[in-house]
Design goal:
This protein is mainly beta and 359 residues long. Helices cover 9% and strands 46% of the residues. It contains four helices and 20 strands. The strands form four sheets. Strands 3, 4, 5, 8, 9, 14, 15, 16, 18, 19 and 20 form an eleven-stranded mixed β-sheet that branches. Strands 7-6-10-11 form a four-stranded antiparallel β-sheet, with no helix packed on it. The chain has a three-stranded antiparallel β-sheet with strand order 12-13-17, with no helix packed on it. A hairpin with a 2-residue loop joins strand 10 and strand 11.
């Protein structure tokens, strides 16, 4: 077992003056527990992912004991659950074993985890942060963009632009993650809701200078990535002030019709409506670096991928356990008749996995 302590000197000078993050990996065949969890303050259900690392590979654990406690209270035993990762054509590509629990958490809560398996013990603690940002306005407008139109084959397309104004409310250095959640409602001929579909969505952030700076930035140069897959940003450009994110409806097409069981239930005279929720999560510097390192690995399936060095905060093992709190704003769109075709914006852009899969 080897411990690696790195300062990421120039990177941390650019983003913080805090204590360097300890990083660690296994370069032998010694078995180690890998504990990953993301606790979303606005969700009642949470999942912990537990694996066993054996050198340069990992395997799942089916008979572990995982418990947690909130603010030193009684232990909560987590229940194992299997999650399928689907391919775009519906085939199961891989299964993951998670450990779930339900709890309402609020800023300031300390959540401690303990995982035991085959004589190994891994522990971690996460503190739920307060939201350091507020969404003060969300506006939409129709725009015409140059580029490939995958629906018509033309060279221009009409799309909806989203202008999301974020106010940085904390004097400290703050780090954020953008998430978008859609809820589609199935309305019968009388306008009554008879079904709903909740899904994570993804908008095109390539037009925004903060989410996708032209230079890529110092962190991208060091970590070797500028895609910003997790849509992370910080308040460097608007500390204590406001900034308006500019997002576009996606221009790419999904592969096949996703969630057909929902859309196939529509009949003549039915309609649908959409609630889109914008979430700006406050995250820690350590989580920011962790997700940047994961993106640099180029592999979102494996939890530990050599040779990228991941920040960790798990004692007795590997992994990263974190909590984050969102600022939230929801826009509701009026009902539209269902024409027999799935709305373009309803095509799924990411795999149907729980919010915390990528942790």
């Amino acid at each position: 077992m080897k411990k690696i302590y790195i300062i990421l000197a120039s990177a941390l000078l650019a983003v913080s003056c805090e204590t360097p993050v300890e990083t660690i990996w296994s370069d032998t065949n010694e078995a180690m527990l890998v504990l990953n969890a993301q606790l979303l303050q606005d969700k009642a259900g949470h999942t912990v992912w537990l694996h066993c690392s054996e050198g340069r590979g990992y395997r799942e654990i089916e008979d572990a004991s995982v418990v947690c406690s909130i603010n030193g209270g009684g232990e909560i035993t987590l229940e194992p659950v299997s999650v399928d990762r689907e391919m775009y054509d519906g085939r199961i590509e891989q299964q993951f074993l998670g450990y779930k629990f339900k709890a309402e958490i609020v800023p300031g809560d300390d959540i401690a985890f303990q995982a035991q398996w085959d004589g190994h013990l891994a522990t971690a603690t996460a503190t739920v942060p307060a939201a350091a940002a507020a969404i003060t306005a969300v506006d939409t407008m129709k725009v015409i963009l140059n580029g490939q139109n995958y629906s018509t084959g033309g060279t221009v397309r009409t799309t909806r632009q989203w202008n999301i104004t974020v106010k940085d409310t904390s004097p400290e250095k703050n780090f954020y993650m953008l998430r978008v959640e859609d809820v589609y409602y199935h309305l019968d001929g009388s306008g009554h809701v008879v079904g709903s579909l909740v899904q994570d969505s993804r908008m095109d952030a390539s037009y925004d200078a903060l989410l996708h700076p032209a230079s890529g930035g110092l962190m991208d140069e060091i970590l070797g990535t500028d895609d910003n897959y997790y849509e992370l940003f910080n308040d460097e450009m608007f500390s204590g002030a406001s900034y308006t994110l500019k997002l576009m409806e996606p221009s790419w097409m999904a592969y096949g019709e996703l969630w057909p069981e929902f859309w196939e239930s529509f009949g003549d005279g039915d309609s649908y409506s959409l609630d889109r929720t914008i979430k700006i999560y406050t995250i820690s510097l350590e989580e920011y670096l962790y997700l940047k390192a994961k993106e640099a690995s180029g592999n979102d399936i494996e939890y530990i991928t050599e040779p990228v060095i991941y920040p960790v905060n798990v004692s007795g093992g590997l992994g990263f356990v974190t909590a984050m709190t969102p600022a939230v704003r929801t826009l509701s769109f009026p009902a539209e008749p269902f024409t027999g075709e799935i709305p373009y914006n309803a095509y799924r852009y990411i795999d149907p996995l729980p919010d915390d899969y990528y942790y």
